[in-house]
């Protein structure tokens, strides 16, 4: 049985919230097609994050360029009996025709700073809200988590192992991309390798060992079947005994031109096992063989193991990465900031927004570290490097998006600019983001236009 009606793509234009379509019909019936400005931003950082890393822009632009309602989707909507035929005719011709300004993928960002702005006729800008949040939220979430492992791993091999516990197929593939963007070396997810050119890494499962009558036979079988980059899983039964078996097998493999590149640990006290296995390998003449660790690994465990001097050369990071287990969601939003040339803002308790088209200006100290941002209105002239740049006009990219390798190089530059206190895992003093007088004045104007006397409380950072 099909998962969706024939002819309806998944994902497609129907991957949205119902209220987007009901609002669109309301706009359509009232002729509300003036230009709207929406911005995507995170409201605050959780205590276990010192920064966020922007990711997902490539997919967001793909979505906007390809947005349309198919005949099958329109027929299905018609069958709901909720929408007028005139409105459905309008949807049939709807394409995204607006502009997008954004921080480049891989940019560090902080609370209240928009990483993407959409400027388009109101129905278009409204319709894309749900999918844009879906794309930008998830990849930024995972990239931010992944970068923390990159920072503490200090150049050791990092591989995404999260497919099997990711929240769905798209999440698994996008998590691989976000982790690689942030500095991981590769992924075990084959489709991510095919789609994005991410290097693939993989060894064997315990089932491969269990399927053989002996561990020695399993090791030799695997080695002769896949001799390149040979990495053997040694914790199925007795970890140290298996390491000794690898040492005993190595000369026979070497005679066939096969080199044992390393071993993998996946359970128990990884640090203690790594120390014991290292001694066994070294004493057996396999000093060049590496030790790779997996099994409930995250940045906190990596940091602890390395602080304890565990001789581990690389890590497979899975569940905790692909679910961002310690902070599984961004407190983020895509909000209307201007309509028909007038500033707009939300004043809900705890969710106050800054109105208008904004720019983020970043300042750097004498060491090249970012030392503070200013949030202001677009076009303001203040100190700092502006971070938000045009990327789309008339519904089409202004230029080809950078390659994933180019984004990785850009991220390395961003990491170099990160202050030392923010690179560490514990919560640091909040990075300073100040609001310029021009933006405060615009907030007062937005309040005046809807009859509010004061500018209200400022949004908080953490």
From TrEMBL:
Full protein name: Nicotinate phosphoribosyltransferase
NCBIfam families assigned: NAPRTase_put (TIGR01513), PRK09243.1-3 (NF006696), PRK12484.1 (NF009131)
Pathway(s) served: Cofactor biosynthesis; NAD(+) biosynthesis; nicotinate D-ribonucleotide from nicotinate: step 1/1
Family label: Belongs to the NAPRTase family.
InterPro entries assigned: Aldolase_TIM, N/Namide_PRibTrfase, NAPRTase_C, NAPRTase_N, Nic_PRibTrfase-Fam, Nic_PRibTrfase_pncB, Nicotinate_pribotase-like_C
Sequence ranges assigned to domain Nicotinate/nicotinamide phosphoribosyltransferase in this UniProt record: 158-338
Function: Catalyzes the first step in the biosynthesis of NAD from nicotinic acid, the ATP-dependent synthesis of beta-nicotinate D-ribonucleotide from nicotinate and 5-phospho-D-ribose 1-phosphate.
Posttranslational modification: Transiently phosphorylated on a His residue during the reaction cycle. Phosphorylation strongly increases the affinity for substrates and increases the rate of nicotinate D-ribonucleotide production. Dephosphorylation regenerates the low-affinity form of the enzyme, leading to product release.
Domain Nicotinate phosphoribosyltransferase N-terminal: 14-136
Catalytic reaction(s) noted: 5-phospho-alpha-D-ribose 1-diphosphate + nicotinate + ATP + H2O = nicotinate beta-D-ribonucleotide + ADP + phosphate + diphosphate
Keywords for this protein: Glycosyltransferase, Ligase, Phosphoprotein, Pyridine nucleotide biosynthesis, Transferase
């Amino acid at each position: 049985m099909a998962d969706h009606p024939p002819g309806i793509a998944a994902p497609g234009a129907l991957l949205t919230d119902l209220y987007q379509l009901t609002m669109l019909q309301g706009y359509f019936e009232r002729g509300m097609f003036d230009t709207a400005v929406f911005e995507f931003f995170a409201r605050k950082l959780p205590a276990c994050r010192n920064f966020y890393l922007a990711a997902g822009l490539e997919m967001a632009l793909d979505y906007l360029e390809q947005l349309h309602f198919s005949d099958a989707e329109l027929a299905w909507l018609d069958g709901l009996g909720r929408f007028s035929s005139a409105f459905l005719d309008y949807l049939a011709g709807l394409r995204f025709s607006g502009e997008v300004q954004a921080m480049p993928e891989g940019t560090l960002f902080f609370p209240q700073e928009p990483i993407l702005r959409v400027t388009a006729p109101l129905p278009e800008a409204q319709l894309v809200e749900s999918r844009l949040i879906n794309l930008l939220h998830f990849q930024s979430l995972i990239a931010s988590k992944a970068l923390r492992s990159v920072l503490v791993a200090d150049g050791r091999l990092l591989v995404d192992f999260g497919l099997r516990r990711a929240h769905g197929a798209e999440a698994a593939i996008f998590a691989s991309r976000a982790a690689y963007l942030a500095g991981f070396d590769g992924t075990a997810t084959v489709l991510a390798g095919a789609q994005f050119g991410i290097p693939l890494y993989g060894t064997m499962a315990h089932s491969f060992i269990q399927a053989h009558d002996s561990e020695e036979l399993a090791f030799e079988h695997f080695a002769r079947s896949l001799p390149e980059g040979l990495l053997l899983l040694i914790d199925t039964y007795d970890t140290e005994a298996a390491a000794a078996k690898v040492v005993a097998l190595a000369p026979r493999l070497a005679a066939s031109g096969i080199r044992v590149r390393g071993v993998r640990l996946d359970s128990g006290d990884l640090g203690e096992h790594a120390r014991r296995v290292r001694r066994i390998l070294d004493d057996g003449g396999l000093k060049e063989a590496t030790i790779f660790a997996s099994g409930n690994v995250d940045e906190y465990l990596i940091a602890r193991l390395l602080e304890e001097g565990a001789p581990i050369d690389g890590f497979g990071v899975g569940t905790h990465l692909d679910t961002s287990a310690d902070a599984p969601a961004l407190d983020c939003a895509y909000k209307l900031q201007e309509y028909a040339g007038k500033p707009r803002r939300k004043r809900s308790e705890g969710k106050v927004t800054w109105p208008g088209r904004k720019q983020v200006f970043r300042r750097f100290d004498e060491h090249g570290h970012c030392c503070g941002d200013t949030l202001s209105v677009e076009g303001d002239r203040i100190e700092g490097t502006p971070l938000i740049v045009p990327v789309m006009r008339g519904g089409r990219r202004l230029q080809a998006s950078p390659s994933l390798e180019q984004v990785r190089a850009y991220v390395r530059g961003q990491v170099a600019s990160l202050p030392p206190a923010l690179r560490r895992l514990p919560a640091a003093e909040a990075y300073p983001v100040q609001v310029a007088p021009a933006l405060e004045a615009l907030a007062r104007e937005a309040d005046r236009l809807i009859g509010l006397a004061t500018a209200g409380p400022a949004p908080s950072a953490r």
